[in-house]
Write a structure and sequence with these properties.
Blueprint lengths: L1 H25 L6 E8 L4 H18 L9 E8 L4 H11 L6 E4 L3 H14 L3 E3 L15 E3 L4 H14 L4 E7 L2 H16 L3 E8 L5 H13 L4 E5 L2 H13 L8 E4 L1 H10 L15 E5 L5 H15 L11 H22 L6 E3 L4 E3 L2 E3 L5 E3 L2 H9 L3 E3 L2 E3 L11 E8 L2 E9 L3 E3 L45 E6 L9 E2 L6 E2 L1 H11 L7 E6 L8 H9 L5 E2 L7 H4 L3 E2 L4 E3 L1 E6 L1 E3 L12 H22 L10 H14 L12 H30 L2 E3 L5 H7 L3 E4 L4 H7 L8 E4 L2 H10 L8 E5 H8 L5 E4 L6 E3 L2 E2 L4 H16 L1 H10 L10 E2 L10 H29 L10 H14 L6 H9 L8 H6 L15
Helix pairs in contact: 2-11, 3-4, 5-6, 7-8, 11-12, 13-23, 13-24, 16-17, 16-18, 16-25, 18-25
Length: 933
């Protein structure tokens, strides 16, 4: 037995020696204690919860054998007391005690300061509550945010604003790093959705009730009613208290609070002053989302025991910052474990230098740099673990993966979850993890949020804006026209306006759900029509709040302002002089162009000639003396135009060809008849111009209305030389210039909008619109970009159209006495060859194939009847050609059936009966009328 004890002792010694050698080769032994610092405000809502959570986490880590493997965490807690200066002092004290990392920097302001110290001393700074997005920049490499950044919270708010179709919000924020940087991100996220922050109400960090009152009064005087509150937890409730006093928590307002409000409700819901929740009714807030799990449920069940240890914390609720603080300790513990596994040393280097400020010496020799800081930071960024909030790992940008938020609505004595937001699926009513890996559906038919109880205890979505309550009227620019004053004009001796556009505007205002104070300001010198583009530009520069009148909605103007729904259709047209066309001797030739007449005549002759060739050998009616056959062929050709041909066609190819030709004749004659009827029964107007194309090509001067956008369109789009354009300022000037024409210093045509020209032409019968309109647009009222009034006015204009009121206003101002020649129309277009080219091609192809088949048959018959002699002399070729021509010309005999048919139909012939008897053996088919073919 003693022998075995001796052997065992030797083996143990060898093992210890090998282990020592191996450890000496790999590095030093793990320390028994790892020092970490904790810096936060102990008397704050977040700080109270965080301290309890961190204490519990350190205890759990130290009691777990799976983490740190014997090394114990020792956390040193220091109170920063809401002070950046105190944060600096406490951070320096940590580095005097060989601290490997710091948990804390509760506020973003303190985090900015301590991060500089962390960079210098290479101590990772892990924060569960400093959510300022700029802290994750390259400026602070040793700062690690272990909660969700405000970058994603502001994106969630922007998505909510866009979801409810609001365009402007007011930002109420603390004017420090936390507030400014968060609101800057919100501005960018709103801009991505074509929304904006219309007003920023900045508050001092040490804000007072008077400061908040002054800021909210200015907000109430503005137009936006969507308010985003981004302030620290300590001053948030004071904002709503003042808002309730100013009656800004009623119907029509939208309040969106960032995560500070959900933190208060989670932590102090049961200890809030009486009536506090009543002042928060209808507010929307966000809360960082964490997946439900067994770990989370277990920790929540422990919370009452953890807070019950101290009676003063017995009513302290668990907020999301407490959950993230707990996970932060575990994250750091796993990173330290990986740090030690890789041989990381717990060693520090003294700064060893002093800094002088004036005559005072600052001794910094006690501070030390953590030599393993870079390695520990790398291990922290590489963490991939599961905490009570779910999976924990970092993106390349330093943010936690899968950011998500809950959307809360304060109702009654608590709040309800109305939906979720995640950077993967946007808004949804199902938890984000259920949508991971599924195709995202952003369709409006998919429910994105549950119903909200808005301030004022209403379920109706607030409009989100009102007219500014500052006593100022809307300054509306009105063009001071000198022509077409039916559309808009100033009443002499007053500051009032009248006209079609004014009536439409006032009628639309009556349908608005709220009063709109306004005043009209004329724009123009009263001598020339003003440029509507310049008027629109003055809205962009802020001179006018809106503009009404005959303002065409064109591309360059839509880049400057927003337009309402068009209240009248318009578009550019060409107006030119026209003259009446009376029927004359040769009117019957007008339906066809000269080319059409020529091709039709040629095909008549060609078809007649082909039919003669096909019928000459078998049909006696196409035989006889040469002159007689020419007359017969011509008669047959032209009689087919009236379907009056009397000659019979008996060959199969001839019949097929005739059927095709008669179909062509049917189409051509029907079209001719219809066109001629139109020309003779309707009064015709003639103009050498056919539309904008012929006007551009003519090179003649062109008139346009001064101040109209037609000038820019003709130059920029149609590339017409500016020297050809003549500005005109009144209907009388238009008429005179058109009557004079280019030869007398006038214009060939006038280009303007159809709305003007319909009124202009109603009493001027010698002028007319030629061709088709070449632009399509309308007139609308102009408002600044993203103005909600533009949307409201568009809705009102649509209602006017649906009720018929818009048409009534149109008839009141624009229905003038019609021109007496209203039934007249521009000359009917003559029928051109191109319209019938397909028919002529078919007929031509039929003629070609008929001739080809016919001559193939003739050649085949001739070669069988007169075989070619191999020894024939060259001189006999002419004789053989003569024989072939004679063979083609000779009469071909037909069968007895054709003979009988010919005999029966002989009574209808114009030939002598004896002649029929003599030639009856050859027979013909009697086709005496079109109905027999």
């Amino acid at each position: 037995m003693d022998r075995w004890y001796f052997v065992l002792s030797i083996l143990l010694c060898l093992c210890n020696t090998l282990a020592a050698d191996a450890f000496n080769a790999g590095g030093q032994a793990r320390p028994s204690v790892a020092n970490i610092g904790c810096a936060f405000s102990l008397n704050s809502i977040i700080g109270k919860v965080a301290k309890i959570a961190i204490d519990a986490a350190v205890e759990d880590v130290n009691s777990s054998p799976a983490v740190l493997k014997g090394t114990k965490l020792r956390h040193i807690v220091r109170d920063t007391n809401h002070s950046g200066f105190a944060g600096i002092i406490e951070a320096m004290k940590f580095m005097e005690t060989d601290t490997m990392a710091i948990i804390g920097a509760q506020s973003s302001v303190t985090a900015h300061i301590i991060s500089h110290i962390a960079n210098e001393l290479k101590a990772p700074l892990l924060s569960y509550s400093a959510t300022d997005p700029t802290l994750s920049s390259l400026q602070y490499p040793f700062f690690v945010l272990t909660a969700q950044s405000d970058l994603f919270q502001m994106e969630a708010i922007a998505t909510i604003v866009d979801h409810y179709e609001w365009k402007e919000v007011v930002a109420i924020y603390t004017d420090d790093d936390y507030g400014r940087n968060g609101i800057d991100v919100l501005r960018d996220k709103l801009a991505e959705k074509r929304c904006k922050i219309s007003y920023k109400a900045a508050l001092r960090p040490e804000v007072t009730k008077d400061d908040i009152t002054s800021a909210l009064v200015k907000v109430a005087l503005g137009s936006s009613r969507v308010l985003v509150v981004h302030v620290p937890v300590e001053s948030g409730l004071l904002v709503f208290d003042v808002a309730h006093t100013l009656k800004m928590m009623g119907k029509g307002y939208v309040w969106i609070a960032t995560s500070w409000l959900s933190t208060i409700l989670d932590t102090n819901r049961y200890s809030l002053p009486f009536g506090t929740l009543g002042k928060l009714q209808g507010v929307i807030s966000l809360r960082m989302y964490s997946k439900n799990s067994e770990l989370k449920s277990h920790f929540i069940s422990r919370w009452s025991n953890l807070t019950g240890a101290e009676s003063r914390n017995s009513l302290l609720g668990l907020s999301m910052y407490g959950l993230y603080a707990y996970d932060t300790v575990w994250l750091l513990a796993h990173a330290l474990d990986a740090f030690f596994d890789e041989g990381g040393n717990v060693s520090f280097t003294s700064i060893g230098r002093a800094s002088k400020t004036g005559s005072t010496m600052l001794h910094l020799d006690g501070l030390s740099i953590f030599n393993g800081g870079d390695l520990l930071l790398r291990k922290i960024k590489q963490i991939n673990m599961t905490g009570i909030n779910g999976p924990i790992s970092f993106t390349q940008d330093g943010y936690l993966v899968d950011p998500a938020f809950e959307v809360l609505n304060v109702i009654g004595t608590g709040y309800g979850i109305i939906g979720y937001w995640s950077n993967y699926s946007g808004l949804s009513v199902v938890p984000p993890e259920t949508l991971h890996g599924k195709e995202t559906n952003f369709s409006s038919s998919v429910k994105q949020l549950y119903g909200v109880i808005w301030p004022g205890e209403t379920k109706e979505k607030p409009r989100g804006w009102v007219l500014p309550n500052n006593g100022r009227e809307l300054v509306i620019g009105v063009p001071k026209r000198v022509s077409f004053r039916e559309f808009i004009s100033e009443i002499e001796g007053t500051k009032l306006f009248k006209g079609y556009c004014i009536d439409v505007f006032t009628a639309a205002l009556k349908l608005m759900p709220y009063p709109v104070p306004y005043k009209f300001v004329p724009f123009g010198d009263g001598k020339n029509n003003p440029s509507c583009t310049e008027l629109v530009h003055l809205i962009k520069t802020g001179v006018f709040d809106a503009a009404i009148g005959d303002i065409a909605i064109v591309t360059n103007r839509t880049r400057m302002v927003d337009f309402t729904q068009p209240f009248i259709e318009s578009g550019l047209v060409v107006v030119a002089p026209v003259r009446k066309l009376s029927p004359h001797t040769w009117s019957f030739l007008m339906p066809f162009t000269l080319q059409m007449w020529g091709v039709t005549a040629i095909f008549l002759l060609v078809v007649g000639a082909v039919v003669w060739i096909l019928e000459h050998r078998v049909n006696d009616q196409f035989r006889g003396p040469f002159k007689e056959q020419v007359v017969t062929t011509l008669w047959f050709s032209f009689s087919t135009m009236c379907f009056a041909q009397r000659e019979n066609v008996i060959s199969a190819m001839g019949r097929i060809l005739l059927i095709i030709w008669l179909f062509v004749v049917l189409i051509v004659t029907s079209s001719y008849t219809a066109s001629l009827t139109s020309m003779l029964t309707a009064q015709q107007l003639y103009s050498p111009l056919k539309g904008i194309e012929s006007l551009v090509a003519s090179g003649d001067p062109i008139g346009y209305q001064q101040g109209s956008f037609s000038r820019d369109y003709l130059i920029e789009e149609l590339k017409i030389q500016e020297s050809r354009l003549v500005p005109l300022n009144s209907p009388e000037a238009y008429e005179k210039a058109l009557e004079d024409g280019p030869s007398k210093g006038g214009v060939a045509a006038f280009v303007d909008e159809s709305a003007y020209m319909e009124l202009f032409l109603s009493t001027r019968c010698h002028l007319s619109i030629v061709g088709q309109g070449f632009t399509k647009n309308g007139w609308g009222f102009a408002f600044p970009r993203d103005s909600p009034l533009a949307v409201e006015m568009s809705t009102a204009i649509l209602k006017l159209s649906e009720t018929g009121e818009l048409q009534r206003i149109h008839e009141k101002w624009l229905k003038s006495i019609a021109c007496s020649s209203l039934g007249a129309k521009l000359q009917t277009e003559r029928l051109e060859l191109g319209s019938f080219s397909g028919l002529f091609i078919i007929s031509g192809v039929a003629c070609f194939f008929a001739l080809f088949i016919y001559f193939a048959q003739i050649l085949w018959q001739f070669r069988h009847k007169y075989p070619k002699q191999p020894t024939a002399a060259p001189s006999s070729r002419f004789g053989r050609l003569h024989t072939f021509l004679s063979f083609v010309d000779e009469k071909q005999e037909v069968g007895t059936k054709k003979k009988r048919i010919l005999t029966e139909g002989g009574s209808h012939r114009s030939h002598d009966s004896d002649q029929v008897g003599r030639e009856g053996s050859h027979g013909t088919i009697d086709i005496t009328s079109n109905s027999q073919i």
